[in-house]
Amino acid sequence: MTYNPQFFRRTDLPDVAGPVRDLVGYGEHPPRVRWQNDAKVAIQIVVNYEEGSEKSFAMGDNVNDGLYELPFAVDGQRDLAVESMYEYGTRAGIWRLFRVLDHADVPVTFFAAAVALERNPEVALKLARRGDEAAGHGFRWSNHFEMTKDEEREAIRQAVASIEKTTGTRPVGWYCREMSISTRELLVEEGGFLYDSDTYSEDIPYWTSVDGHSHLVVPYSLVVNDARYVVGTGYGSPEHFFETAKATLDRLRNDGDDVGRMMSIGLHPRISGNPARADALARFIAYAQTFDDVEFMRRIDIARTFEKQVPRP
Questions:
Q1: For the chain, how long is the longest CA-to-CA vector?
Q2: What pLDDT does 5 receive?
Q3: Rounded distance, CA 132 to CA 301, Å?
Q4: Which residue of 30, 105, 163, 179 has the fewest C-beta atoms within 10 A of its own C-beta?
Q5: Is residue 252's pLDDT more than 80?
Q6: CA-to-CA distance for 132 and 47, rounded, in angstroms?
């Protein structure tokens, strides 16, 4: 009797393209890391700034982006409703988020699509004045797996140059919309990046090897992430966001060991920039700031702190 070998395979194929999967990681005993002011938990707020760089008929993509408040779609032509939701994020939502963050005196990392900052330079100037980090989020908010390797290399190059021009600082972190099997290799090849966040595989940064070079990964998360307000498996109200964030922090502070971990929060101006959702964010920040063992940090600061305590291999 002949069996299909795929049903009995134990490992990945030896010639599969892209990075090797690591299913073991730190195991039972991760390194004991402490963050700023000896904190056990580093909260890292990401503002995904994409508005104006998303796929649209207006930009010649012949498709409208689908991350929208309602499950409606206009095909074959401009969708002015979707476009206006993105406009809300860059006209009103981003400034409400800035007010929340300014009031709490919390630093953040922007996952910044370069074209979005070009189209609203006041946002670039504001984040620079605040001392926020602008990490690369693509030249446009585009799927990198749809690009050829040469196109992706050029998109990274143009994103770096553009963000450096609009903010005054080149990005040293990277997170694209959907990475390709070549993304990490191209970041190492470019040579100016300290870390990338194109993974959801850990609560602690870790080192990986790319073409013989040590490369730092600072993981991201889609759990405490406001995209869940507008997708089917998401939050029904701001209370759900607040409850999820609170429970995440409570568990990380008392996780059964003495390991320091990071907590990622993902925001989008067109989503959390709405009043009720911004209120839930403000309430969570106030809750987190009552603890002495919690610090809000930029992603670059988490990377540098980790690098000092867990040196590059």
A1: 70
A2: 86
A3: 11
A4: 105
A5: yes
A6: 10
